[in-house]
Specification:
Length: 198
């Protein structure tokens, strides 16, 4: 098993990095497009997928744990554990995305404060929800916006590590990692705040 210094001496694969960067942008655009479409159209698949929101929370929690393990592993120069933890975070993120698309592509949105389940939050319901609704909407907005903004850069950061561009990988990870961690950690928070309305 190579040690930390051996990893740093590997030659970068410039051509593969260029290809993976293009793939990162294409995948990101496709995911953005899919999320935009599923917000407008709901498919009837004949199954009740209303059980998925707690699954989303668990998967995001697992991503958060894996990212923290990866962070402390690389701080201790344990590249093997870092790579395994990042790989697990990617797997849990892909599973989350599949569950998220399945749920939001088939189920009506649940709105914070909607006590009677009519998919509308009237003034009385807003008053009852109080400041908690504002907190929820702020957390949700930052979660969604940062998820969208960070996705291509997460993929590019991963590809930089994969293609041995370690200096660039490290430089990018310094700001991409906190974004990914925030998005993963706020996913369960959004679920717990919205849970009374499911």
């Amino acid at each position: 098993m190579p040690d930390y210094s051996e990893y740093l001496q590997r030659e970068p694969d410039i051509e593969l990095q260029r290809k993976l960067t293009r793939v990162a942008w294409v995948v990101s655009v496709l995911i953005f497009s899919l999320v935009a479409v599923m917000g407008r159209y709901k498919l009837d698949v004949g199954w009740d997928l209303s059980f998925l929101p707690p699954v989303h929370a668990v998967l995001n929690s697992l991503v958060t744990i894996c990212l923290l393990v990866a962070f402390f592993a690389i701080k201790n120069k344990n590249v093997t554990l870092h790579k395994r933890a990042i790989g697990a975070a990617v797997i849990f993120s892909v599973l989350f995305l599949l569950c998220y698309v399945a749920y939001h592509g088939t189920q009506q949105e649940v709105r914070f404060g909607d006590l009677n389940g009519d998919n509308e939050v009237d003034e009385i319901e807003k008053a009852k929800a109080g400041v908690a609704r504002t907190v929820y909407l702020l957390v949700l907005a930052t979660h969604v916006i940062l998820a969208a903004v960070s996705l291509p850069f997460i993929l590019i950061t991963l590809s930089l590590g994969y293609t041995n561009h370690f200096a660039r990988h490290k430089k990018m990870a310094r700001w991409v990692f906190p974004l990914w961690l925030y998005v993963a950690a706020t996913g369960p928070v959004c679920y717990l705040l919205l849970k009374p309305y499911y």
